[in-house]
Write a structure and sequence with these properties.
Elements (H helix, E strand, L loop, with lengths): L1 H17 L6 H8 L1 H4 L34 H8 L3 E2 L2 E2 L15 E5 L2 E5 L1 H12 L4
Antiparallel strand pairs: 1-2, 3-4
Helix pairs in contact: 2-5
Length: 132
């Protein structure tokens, strides 16, 4: 009986290892954003990125540029390719990781958003790297 229980636990652990675990915000940033915005988010990436005509912005200054409040909704809108400043922005390359059929609520400085869990994780990470 004890051997059977140990086998069941082992099989459960092994099968769980094969499942896709949700990526952290830092991992999503590294996989999707760092190539243009730099590993530290300061806009130092983009070297050799085809079609990139200007230096990507410093993502650590988003709150500073918005009166000290991280603009989670605006960033989410930009990433989801909605209208920004009267223009339509093309879907950013490599952002498929942020898509999901699930949604969740997340709060930023009193603003509530309903977004996908990967987008929420990325927004939380971007909020954490803001300059003080």
């Amino acid at each position: 009986m004890r051997l059977l229980a140990m086998m069941i636990v082992t099989l459960t652990v092994v099968s769980a290892c094969g499942r896709d675990q949700p990526k952290t915000g830092a991992a999503l940033f590294a996989d999707n954003c760092a190539v243009c915005h730099g590993a530290d988010g300061r806009g130092g990436g983009g070297a050799g990125v085809e079609g990139l005509s200007k230096t990507p912005p410093d993502l650590t200054q988003l709150a500073v540029q918005n009166g000290g409040v991280f603009p989670a909704r605006a960033i989410s809108i930009s990433l989801e390719s909605y209208a920004v400043d009267g223009h339509r922005v093309p879907r950013l390359a490599g952002m498929a990781d942020l898509q999901s059929d699930e949604t969740q609520r997340v709060r930023f400085d009193g603003d509530r958003l309903r977004t996908t869990p990967p987008m929420a994780a990325l927004l939380v990470y971007l909020d954490q790297i803001q300059a003080q």
